[in-house]
Every structure is written in C-alpha cells, then in structure tokens.
Amino acid sequence: MKGKPPKTKRRGLVRRYYEWTMRHAQGPHAWITLALVSFTESSFFPIPGDLFLIPMALADRRRAFFLAGICTLASVLGGILGYAIGAWLYDSVGHWLISIYGYGDKVEWFRALYAKYGAWIILIKGLTPIPYKVVTIASGFSGYDLGTFIMLSFITRGARFYLLATLIYFFGERVRDFLERRLELALALFLIIVVGGFLVLRYVF
Predict the structure, then answer these.
(1) Which residues contact 136 (CB under 8 A, 6 or more apart)?
(2) DSSP string covering 59-89
(3) pLDDT tens figures, 54-64
(4) Taking the alpha carbons of 25, 164, 154, 145 in that order, is the dihedral positive or negative?
(5) Which of 27, 118, 122, 188 would give a disulfide with 152, using CB separation of 3.0 to 4.6 Å?
(6) 38 vs 78: CA distance, rounded Å
C-alpha cells in the first residue's frame, strides 16, 4: 500500500499577497493601483503607498524611480484633496477624519502651531510614519499657503519615495532575498512602524 503524498505547506495570506504583487508588478495597470493607493493615503486611506511601491520596485528595479515618481505625484495630488477637505469641508468630513487620530479638540492649537512652524511640520511629518493625511487636512483648515504647501509636499514625499527607490535600485537583491525569507517578520515590523506613527501622533504631539 502506497503512502500518502506529503502535504504541501499552505502559504499564508501575506505571502500570497506578496507573490500576487510580484506577478502583476509589470502589468499594464500596476501603476494605476500604486497611484490610487498613494493618492488616497494622503487624504483618508490608512494604508501607505510604500506597501505597494516596495514589491513593485523589487519586481523590476529598472522602474524603481519611475514608480517613485508616480507615488510622489499621486501623493501630492491626494494631499491637495486633503487640503481641500480641511479648507472647505472641515466641519463635516475634515473634523471626522481629524477626530479619528485624536486631534478633534485641538483645532486652535493646530492653527497656532502652523502659524509658527508650518513648513517644518509638513517637511518632517511627510517623511515619517506619522499619517500624512493629518498634515494635509490640518494645512487646509489652518489656512496655510497652498502654493507653499504643494512645493513642500513635493519635497518631503519625493524624498521619502525616491529614497526607497534608491535603496531598492542599488540593494534590491539583498532586500528581495530578505523579504522572501522573512516576509512575515518584515511586514510585522512595517506594521509596528505604521501603528507607532499613529500612537505618536495621538499621544505625543
């Protein structure tokens, strides 16, 4: 009597997502998904574009800087939407979004902070895991100059995404090897950083 064939190890959801992303990263519509995530993340969506940029850039390192450009442009456009929400829809949508992150009762404090440190707030928080959507909405309801806001957003978001693209372009094989061996650990660390950004925003600033 023949023995039963060995059971194949079932892949987890995280690894299936990674493999799906790698397969479709060079597809004709991959950049659209990346742009949509980057756009919405700057105004209301909780998932950062890095989670899509990294595997897509790893799949084809020659397109790393092109993909970083898409992330940057889409993120700034999404930031303009967030600015508009803060400027014209703060009493409804804007206040609700800000309240989620613990700033619903700090409107006047934010206005005073922006009057003094507006540029530094945009530049520093745009590079960190602290949710950038809070910065975009706060910029709108604080009446921060729109032209300056757009310029600073291009600087800070571009620096973040192009830094990732540069690391992947030059060290992509090492990054990919680490991810494929320690994917769940890498995602857990990434989520810890993202959640940590939310907690810092809520309890420190």
Answers:
(1) 42, 43, 78, 79, 80, 81, 82, 83, 85, 86, 153
(2) H-GGGHHHHHHHHHHHHHHHHHHHHHHHHHS
(3) 888 888 888 89
(4) positive
(5) 122
(6) 7
